[in-house]
Amino acid sequence: xxxxxxxxxxxxxNAYILSNDEKxxxxxxxxxxxxxxxxxxxxxxxxxxxxxxxxxxxDHIGAVDKVRKEWDIPVYVHKNEENWxxxxxLNGSALLxxxxxxxxxxxxxxxxxxxxxxxxxxxxVFLTPGHSPGSVSYYLEDENLIISGDVLFKGSIxxxxxxxxxxEVLLNSIHKKLLSLPENTxxxxxxGPETDIMTxxxxxxxxxxxxx
Length: 212
Prior knowledge:
This protein has 7 helices and 14 strands. The protein is α/β, with parallel strands linked by helices. The chain has a single domain (2-203), classed as Metallo-beta-lactamase, Chain A, CATH 3.60.15.10. The strands form 3 sheets. A 6-stranded mixed sheet has the order 1-2-3-4-5-6, covered by helices on one side. A hairpin with a 5-residue loop joins strand 13 (186-189) and strand 14 (195-196). The protein is globular. Keywords: Hydrolase, Metal-binding, Zinc.
């Protein structure tokens, strides 16, 4: 399995492309710059199967429609945020950018923690709310990595001052779902560089000392 991080847009939101040796791939959080993302996929001769969203804030959905239409692939998002894709007042774009950033409705709604099989890819969906009510993380156990969106960053955690955010809920999500993973699990975050569970357990000042 191969993965690439592609920071996109004015606040450099990380999109991720996971691919296998047969060139099939999954796209996570295409937040902006659809041309850049689609061009990379074409240059690498990849075959996209789906778009998976960790959550539906504007900076994670801005390129969804152009990428979806280019490759004719389905979009996954949590049910709690199905309306955020179409509503700028919910996804934060109207408030924070003064623009109406939207996407068409998702094709598949996630409602519970479950195993997903999309082509050759096997993922576990973890419900990790707190940054937003429908935040999810995608865990690939065989690859020893988790795509956490804006839940956990290198040395930091997601903001909780947006509508629907909750600091205590976020910390519970981090401790119960992410920090329970093997210490060498790679964390692919929504912004900034990758990290791993051990590093955050030992060094992250936002989660050290928190008790459930």
